[in-house]
Amino acid sequence: MPGIEEAGGIAVVLVARGAVAAAPRAEMESLATLAARMPGISHATYAFTEQGVPSLREVVVALRDRPFAEIRIVPLLLPMEPSFRAWLGRTLARWQTGWDREGPAVRIGPGPISSVHLEGLVADLIDRAGHEPLFDPESHPPVTGSVVSAAQRRVLVCRGGPCSEAGSAVLWGHLRNEQERLGLRTAGRGMMSATTSCLGPCSLAPVVQVWPEGTVYGGLDETGIDRIVAEHLLRDAPVETLAYTADGRKKRLRTP
């Protein structure tokens, strides 16, 4: 990654939601290279909160083992929901509870909309658009067809309000990365994944549901997702200690 590591220096992590293709990852790499050239920055890299590698979690874990005084997380999101910094902060706090020692201080930036240079950037992009070729519909032929997946399982990750605030975006990214890494679309009975609006049991956030059984899982973290993948998706054995019975009664989130 770009930058020259210095003891006690500042590490920067540029954050986007997700990317699976090479081109957007190359763009993030270029931005990180620019950031690494800025005065006072010892190291700069990038990460994704949703699908894509490297994930924010693995980047932060790696940076904790280096002699930086501070890690600055810079969201490159437009628009950026007001809740983004809140759930990201809670997610970082959750990760830190499992670490055996303190690492560099962490700061989370406010996002592009607060920049005093935003007007100039938008003006430059508008000017550049005026020099692009006229759009030609003939150069964009319609899609002729799509494959209908034969996968028998569907995994739904709730992105309703309470689940989003509980960090479901990070869990969604972790699941999608594992889906790609382990070939889950065809492994076992085959699996397709999707985000969804509210699944109902908001007090159990973040919530994931696995079909065709309809098993509801709540209070999940990355370790919980790993268990669901290993046991439920690959061995057809629902994880009872993480599941909540659909019996029409109110459920309370179990304490770890």
From TrEMBL:
Membrane-spanning intervals of the chain: none
Listed Pfam families: 2Fe-2S_thioredx
Family matches, as Gene3D superfamilies: 3.40.50.1400, Glutaredoxin (3.40.30.10)
InterPro entries, alphabetized: Thioredoxin-like_sf
Record protein name field: (2Fe-2S) ferredoxin
